[in-house]
Amino acid sequence: MKRKLSILLCGTLAAGMLTACGGKKEMTGSETNAKSTGEEETVTIWHDGDEAIMGVIEDTVNKKIADENVSIKFEKKTGLTDQLKLYGNDQANGPDMYLYAHDSLGMLAEMGILAPVTDFISADDEADLLPMTVEAGTYKDTQYVLPLYYESLLFIYNKDLWKGALPKTTDDLLSYMKENTDVDAGTYAVVNQHSTAYNVAPVINGFDGYIIDKDAKPGLDDANTIKAVEYNKKFAELMGEGDYDTCNTLFNEQKAQAIIGGPWLVSGIKDAGINYGICSLADFTLPNGKSLAPYSGVQGVGILKYAEENKKDAITSVLKALCSKETGVALAKESNCAPANQEAYKDEEVAANEMIMAMKTTAESAEPMPNIPQMSVMWGPAESMLAAVNKSGEDVEASAEKYQEEAEAAIADMQ
């Protein structure tokens, strides 16, 4: 999700669990032969992500299931969703599982190529997973994705520039920005992509507004969404251009005291030599008494339907290992990922990681990015509305009405 997620949609998933469900399946001839000969059974997982992270998962899981004569193997596929469209029903050439961001789930589920996670593991096995991540992997009341790790927007600040304690409310943050921003001089208290829907979602969600609901109804003209956009405009006026590159440059060149962004920014911030601190957006309270509620992107694994027929036992073993505390701890320690397994946060080293613990706090109020197919056409109208309000000075209600109609038309065209 990273830069693409922030710009296009912004875009980083959710849910699943452990013990095998139901009775024992009848084994295919190839399975019977593999088990009788002691041949190791390999579960192939396609991905389109960071090879280093996949390596951590592969090593951890394979050690955990070595005694079960099962292993996993990751294969990178550029344009993963397109690959799954081509091979999602091709048992001979497709994967057994895939690992990807949860927001693609609705599209894949509607294709009918996925098997429910609950066909393999029981609800008891989900006990240690963060509820938000499980929700992300659920589509139309069926869980298709087992969550592994997630990300969300954070408040990242320069400890050498920030004056005093961090505010506890967004109103106090706004007051601080007014006192510490000089637009003419090009120095800012806080920068954010103020007209990017993903970056404004914390305010919209916190005001009980919505970009689109679970029934695929756009919410740009919802009264609470309008209130949120009006409130966000006050901040936008103190944030400059608000595009991705400008925000990053201002912060890394120490012309902005803080930036709202995701963990994908941290490596660049480190390279710039910034003495930075991180806190959760959930630590800021809105005027309505609720916390900022950013979208969260969850990375997780889904199972191809045909794989259930001949690798059910092997996949069950893999799923149990994937959502274990051990895998969560490894992801946190070695890849700086916020694990879906809550038990992983009890590890001392994980608990000392400021960024990961900030995302853990955020997970309590964060909302999974909508995983319905219609979300793909919502970013355009939502961001056109924000740009009209923040950059062109158009009336919020008039813009909301205009772009609500545009969003409804785009969704109708999908039918």
List the defining traits of the structure above:
415 residues, alpha/beta, D-Maltodextrin-Binding Protein, domain 2, eight-stranded mixed sheet, four-stranded mixed sheet, 16% strand, globular
Describe this structure in words.
- The chain is an alpha/beta fold and 415 residues long.
- The chain is 40% helix and 16% strand.
- It contains 17 helices and 14 strands.
- Helix 8 (197-206) packs across helix 9 and helix 16 runs antiparallel to helix 17.
- The longest helix is centred in the last third of the chain and has 17 residues, at 396-412.
- The model is unreliable at 1-37 (pLDDT under 50).
Quick overview of this protein structure:
The protein is of the alpha/beta class and 415 residues long. The chain has helices at residues 2-7, 29-37, 51-64, 80-87, 105-110, 131-136, 170-180, 197-206, 223-236, 244-252, 266-271, 307-322, 325-335, 348-351, 354-362, 379-390, 396-412; strands spanning 41-47, 70-76, 97-101, 114-115, 138-139, 142-143, 145-152, 154-158, 188-191, 256-261, 276-280, 295-304, 338-339, 367-368.
Protein topology:
Layout: H1 2-7, H2 29-37, E1 41-47, H3 51-64, E2 70-76, H4 80-87, E3 97-101, H5 105-110, E4 114-115, H6 131-136, E5 138-139, E6 142-143, E7 145-152, E8 154-158, H7 170-180, E9 188-191, H8 197-206, H9 223-236, H10 244-252, E10 256-261, H11 266-271, E11 276-280, E12 295-304, H12 307-322, H13 325-335, E13 338-339, H14 348-351, H15 354-362, E14 367-368, H16 379-390, H17 396-412
Parallel strand pairs: 1-2, 1-3, 9-10, 12-14
Antiparallel strand pairs: 3-12, 4-12, 5-6, 7-12, 7-13, 8-10, 8-11
